[in-house]
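Sample pair:
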Amino acid sequence: MPDLLLELFSEEIPARMQAKAADDLRRMVTDKLVAEGLVYEGAKAFATPRRLALTVHGIPARQADLKDERKGPRVGGPDAAIQGFLKATGLASIEEATIQRDPKKGDFYVALIEKPGRATLDVLAEMLPVIIRTFPWPKSMRWGRRSERPGALNWVRPLHTITATFGLETEEPDVVSFSVDGIEAGQTTFGHRFMAPSAISVRRFEDYEAKLLDAKVVLDADRRKDTIVTDAKQLAFAQGYELVEDPALLDEVAGLVEWPVVLMGSFDPDFLKTPAEVIRATIRNNQKCFVVRDPRTGGLAPKFILTANIEASDGGKTIIAGNERVIRARLSDAKFFYETDLKTRLEDRLPKFEQIVFHEKLGTQAERIKRIERLAAEIAPLVGADVEKVKRAAKLAKADLLTEVVGEFPEVQGLMGKYYALAQGEDASVAAACEEHYKPQGPNDRVPTDPVSVAVALADKLDTLVGFWAIDEKPTGSKDPYALRRAALGVIRILLEQNTRVSLTSIFQAALALQIMRGTDSQFENILAAVRNPGANSSFLQKHPSASGEKLAALIGDLLSFFADRLKVQLREQGARHDLVDAVFALGGQDDLLMVVRRVEALGKFLDSDDGKNLLAGTKRASNILAIEEKKDKRAFDGAPDASLYRLDEEKALAKAIGEVKAEAGTAVAKEDFAAAMSAMAKLRPAVDAFFDKVKVNDDDPKIRENRLKLLNEIRSATRAVADFSKIEG
């Protein structure tokens, strides 16, 4: 079957837009083909700095013929209905319709409409101009003289040529005949801007790709990336160095060149006195170059690797010299910024935060730092951290935001705080916390391990979460402008990976008290007591109507639910069942995430066993019967059963088993031995099975029936020692 080749050749397409643009082109063309009934075999899109290209192979040469049967008005119906039917179906007269006979509903006119399929070449000529005109560039405009005409094309950069061919591999393809903004589609493209700028006539994709390669254009971005990485590693290895790989930079550089030529340049070793991360950020951000590592020292080497877009006649000497000149100037600036920053102590920068608003409803950065410092001090004993070191770290952690280096390279915030803290003689744990309190910033980022870092990182994230919850700025749908989901997942990962036990409710209450105080230390203990017991300490909250007991309880409950949802996401990614998290959280008061996870793990293992599966089935059966009978009687069957009303041995055995299991499981849970609690639950299984096998719950005697329903409720109550089994699926 025929193939389509489409290329849109323009001026420089920004590297950051290329991958999405290629995917958009493939999606828009293939979606439209399918909508037109043209099912294809495969498609692949490409992007270079100057072109978007698409090949779609295995497209039918024409659409299939369509036959449609359309039912019309009743025979003898109103003339207006018949005329409307003729117009809608395209029939010249009612005699062209057939009559469908229906003994019950009467006879109806039916139009048999046959619509011959169109040639695919015509369909393409109709759809491609629309796709080009409606292409979803993030930014586009009209260009040149053509922009003066009405309906001029909006494009990311000036569009020069359109190549569009369609045909069988064994035959000369046809040009898809259409024009956009005065640009006629044809078979002409162009090679490399400098090394092969002449026009090239192409026929189909294989021919197109091969001729571009001859014209110094590597069409496939992955192939360009492979070339850059391979050549860069070999060039570094030849001089005894190692390439510092950077996937994001590699993607960008591959989008800047059509013919990658890898070269190595040098800079003054004296610049290596500046932190390696600053050197890397300077070279990366300003010149899109890679740095190299000296394996003998483990530090950076005074070299960099650049990717040119041309095979220079002088072997690249001029290109290297130009990059060295720019990098020397940028490194001089970075060195100056770093040395200037060292002249001012971190704490001396803090007063400036009083003029910087963190959020209009949450106060200044200075107020936020005071809250984090106080909250971190509350958390410190819970994670085994030195309180004074934690307070010092929390006080200094944000100070590097006001330094020259971080102002120039925001990506090194935190890291520079560590360097500056060490330079001014701070404790190593305090310095580490300046960097690590932001962590983890994503699923692949490490979590802090030093107790001081853990305390400050938790305080930073929990202050943010509680603050935005307090002003009702919660995530909605896919919108999360303050990255609150990431903050919650960060808290969860820290607690779980560090085996840290804390009561989230207690920390939420402390954070809320600090929000009410707006960053001061005045009466913290009194306000915290009021938050924890609003009824007994309401006088401290009278000045804060938004901090009523009901609202505080609702806010904390909502935050716990949010954490439960995030925990489910985290555990689901690790292969755990989300319904087990629901079953544990449904018990209420479950705000120690480490214990929740341990209980979920034990519950999961139990439910994988035969005892667990059968007990779950029995418990659900009991719950279903109770739900039906409670609805029928409009009351709950709670309260202890009357032992004197037991008539069968199975009732007595179940009652005895429930009593034993309740005590044993309760003791195990109190000791946080959840595996033992599950083993105790397993002892219920034989008694529950026997009960349902031999006992008629809805006995004719109302008293016996009620007593047996109360016994079923005891099953439900006993299992709630470990989880709410009604929340478990299956």
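The mean pLDDT is 91.
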